[in-house]
Specification:
Layout lengths: L2 H12 L4 E2 L4 E5 L8 E8 L3 E5 L9 E8 L2 E14 L2 E6 L4 H15 L25
Antiparallel strand pairs: 1-3, 2-3, 2-5, 3-4, 4-7, 5-6, 6-7
């Protein structure tokens, strides 16, 4: 394995599980770069950061503040740093932020991972008690 592949694999292992999020707008404030914030679409989110549609004026290393709403939880001016860019999108890594906000954010992520099974609904992979495993329809 090449050194590049090893670094890529290590980076992938460090990243948290990303959750796609649709319809979430994020206000990006970068006072060092612009007077007014941008409002952009979020692509995905993890415990470590977010994937966003980034304006071209924000190069890697730019410190920003993010404001967004996930379900009922609102977050204002959370510090982050632009870590990478790929065309019109890129990623930000959250900087240290208040524990109360961090806890609400993690509660949202945990809520995303809970299976949403309605009572009384049998999944296709489930079988009734006493039925044999495998394909019985021949």
């Amino acid at each position: 394995m090449s050194e590049h592949d090893a670094k890529e694999r290590e980076g992938y292992a460090r990243r948290g599980k990303r959750r796609p999020i649709a319809g979430v707008l994020v206000a990006i404030d970068a006072p060092e770069v612009a007077e007014r914030p941008w409002v952009v679409d979020a692509i995905d989110v993890s415990a470590d950061g977010m994937g966003l549609v980034l304006p071209p004026e924000l190069p890697e290393g730019t410190r920003v503040e993010l404001s967004f709403k996930l379900d009922a939880a609102e977050f204002a001016r959370l510090p982050a740093t632009v870590t990478h860019r790929m065309g019109t999108s890129g990623g930000v890594r959250f900087d240290p932020w208040p524990d109360a906000d961090r806890l609400r954010f993690l509660e949202f992520l945990v809520g995303c991972t809970k299976p949403r099974i309605e009572p009384g609904v049998i999944r296709r992979s489930a079988r009734a008690a006493g039925e044999p495993f495998g394909d019985t329809e021949r």
